[in-house]
Amino acid sequence: MAQFFEVHPxxxxxxxxxxxxxxxxxxxxxxxxxxxxYALVCHLDDKAAADSLRRIRGVDxxxxxxxxxxxxxxxxxxxxxxxxxxxxxxxxxxxxxxFILEASKEVPRRVSHPSRKTIGLRVPEHxxxxxxxxxxxxxxxxxxxxxxxxxxxxxxxxxxxxxxxHELAAVIDAGACHQEATTVIDLTPMGEGGEPVVVRxxxxxxAALGL
Length: 211
Description:
Blueprint: E1 3-6, H1 14-25, E2 30-32, E3 39-43, H2 47-57, E4 66-68, H3 72-77, H4 83-92, E5 97-102, E6 118-122, H5 127-136, E7 140-144, H6 157-164, E8 170-173, E9 183-186, E10 197-200
């Protein structure tokens, strides 16, 4: 049964977020608000938790999972980033963008794409999620919270609780967030002199990145 944490969207109570972090560190899956829609998150280094994340979301190991990072410096530890890629990342973070990059050795192989060895990465602009990441002290493995068989991401904590309370360890309610997934951009072609590829147009504006 999922624990339900109601927190203020601007000044979340640290004690409640610490309880949510403890559940994640014990292998639980949490539903958290982001600057796009809600996301499912778990501990990066927990294989069983990552498997549960994929099962709840209804995706296989070829679906790109995402690392939610506190800042661009942390992101750069988990991906191979050249100067051109870094400049584009700097223009877009924090914000509702997910970038596909070549995973560094810090990323467990089981969570990167099995053939491409790539991973999704992003720095969210949401005070509650940033506070959670700070208390956790490391990136969280994540995927957009789209119900199995559904097409739209969820943005209401009470609806999420009703659908998934027996599969999640925690639901963090900071009020409704946006109901639109992130914009996903594949930056790996830039490493070979190519151009970024827009994989999914979401909440992040492409014009802000000159794309």
